[in-house]
Each structure stands twice: as structure tokens, then as C-alpha cells.
Design brief:
This protein has 257 residues and is α/β, with parallel strands linked by helices. It is built from seven helices and twelve strands. The chain crosses the membrane at residues 6-26.
Length: 257
């Protein structure tokens, strides 16, 4: 028996190991973790009464500079809930105003974009698309996985089914039935077609945003761009400072270093 025959026989005896290795690798990729997290949140949202809450998922919408992708939208007479999913484990550190949050697993630490700021872009995109009062739009961030918040987070940042309590806590009727139907129709007609090309185009856009944000200065409160301004009056007249581009809704300012 030559070497090639020996190797072939050995491969035939352990063939089942290769699919296991491949499956193990796939389940550790960010793509699968994101997909699995969205699937779990979708199951959780199904607990909401269908006659009162309408669910939309995986919505890609065009923006002025590319696209934005929203994991889930829940539309009801109590408002429109924009849901961002994070499938993570370990300890989570972050506050509403921080640009970056931290994930810590034993001695390993990594940073990720503040999901509240991330979801703010989704909220503003929907505000423009739907032409409704921003007070009827609610941002919700849902963490799936074995994670723990180690700092105080806002009430709209929850673990798993905690998002249901937050959504149900809004009991004031802000929209009538016709407005609810119009919102769903506008989202459905405004979204980009689902498919590989849409997802790939969005991934390219996200990479460009990440690259740009590494150099851009962002507002620590709302996540908008900071722009260089000059004081026009007062004792600081003529001096330059960083001001939030979302002024007057956001009045964050920073000294120029």
C-alpha cells in the first residue's frame, strides 16, 4: 500500500471531522453572530400582539451618503421602535455619551461604537423618510448573549426580552391606524431590495464610515460630526471651538486643543 492510498483511507475514516471544523468556524464569525442575534430578537418580538404591533426586519434604506441598515422596526399606535441588536458576551462598559463602549472578556478588551449613537442615524433616517414628529420614534438597543452591563445604561438599552418591557412601557397613543399603515407602506416602498448586492454595497459603505470616523471628531452626546466654529461675541469673541453640527438640537461644545 503506497503513501497516497494510506492518506486516502485515513481521510475517509475521519471525513466527518471536516464539516464539524467548518461549522465551528462559521459560528464564530461576526456575520453569523449578528445573524443569530437578529434571529433571537425576532423570536422575542413575536411575543408582541400582532394586532397592535407590526414587525419589519432587515431594512436597508438609502441615505444622502450611502445606505443604513436597521435590524428591526416595530410600528404601533404607541410609536415606532427602531431596534439595534448586539450579540456579545463578557462585561460591557459604556454610557450614553461615550463615543466608544468597551467589551471585556477576562483579560481581553475591545472597543465598539456606542450602539445608541449608531441607532441615532437609523432614527434620523426614518424621521426624514416618514416625515413624522421625532417624539414618535424610539431607539432600542438589545444585547443578546452572555453579557453583563458593568456601568449604568439608559432604559432603552436592554438584555433580550427586556426590550418588550421597554416597548410596552409606552402606552400613550401617538399615531392613529391610518398613520400606522402609511408608515409601514412608506418603509416598504423606500427600502432597498433584499439580496446579496444590497448587503455587499452596505458593507462597503460601513467600512468607509469606520475608516472616516477614525479621523473625524464626533459629538460625545449625540454622535454627530463636530465642526470648527468661532465665537462671535462675549469675552471669548474671536476664539475657535468645536461645536456639534446638530445645533440647536444638541448644544455640545468642546475647547480647541
Amino acid at each position: 500500500m503506497d503513501l497516497i492510498e494510506i492518506l486516502m483511507n485515513a481521510a475517509l475514516n475521519v471525513w466527518y471531522i471536516f464539516p464539524i471544523i467548518l461549522l465551528t468556524y462559521i459560528t464564530t464569525t461576526p456575520w453569523f453572530k449578528g445573524l443569530w442575534g437578529e434571529f433571537q430578537v425576532n423570536l422575542i418580538l413575536k411575543r408582541l400582539p400582532h394586532n397592535e404591533y407590526r414587525r419589519l426586519k432587515n431594512i436597508t434604506l438609502p441615505t444622502d451618503n450611502g445606505t443604513t441598515q436597521i435590524d428591526h422596526i416595530v410600528v404601533s399606535k404607541f410609536g415606532v421602535f427602531i431596534i439595534e441588536t448586539k450579540n456579545m458576551k463578557g462585561w460591557i462598559f459604556g454610557s450614553a455619551n461615550q463615543k466608544l463602549w468597551t467589551q471585556k472578556i477576562f483579560k481581553y478588551s475591545s472597543q465598539f461604537q456606542n450602539p445608541i449613537h449608531q441607532n441615532y442615524k437609523h432614527l434620523k433616517t426614518l424621521e426624514a423618510l416618514l416625515n413624522i414628529n421625532i417624539d414618535a420614534l424610539f431607539s432600542v438597543v438589545v444585547f443578546i448573549g452572555d453579557s453583563q452591563f458593568k456601568t449604568e445604561v439608559p432604559e432603552n438599552v436592554t438584555h433580550a426580552s427586556g426590550c418588550l418591557s421597554y416597548i410596552r412601557s409606552h402606552s400613550a397613543e401617538l399615531l392613529n391606524q391610518q398613520q400606522v399603515l402609511d408608515i409601514i407602506n412608506n418603509i416598504e416602498s423606500g427600502r432597498l431590495a433584499r439580496g446579496f448586492s444590497t448587503n455587499q454595497a452596505h458593507k462597503v459603505h460601513v467600512k468607509e464610515i469606520i475608516k472616516q470616523k477614525n479621523t473625524d471628531k464626533l459629538c460625545t452626546k449625540c454622535g454627530s460630526d463636530m465642526v470648527l466654529r468661532e465665537a462671535k461675541k462675549g469675552q471669548n469673541a474671536g476664539s475657535k471651538f468645536w461645536g456639534c453640527s446638530n445645533f440647536p438640537k444638541c448644544r455640545t461644545v468642546e475647547k480647541l486643543n
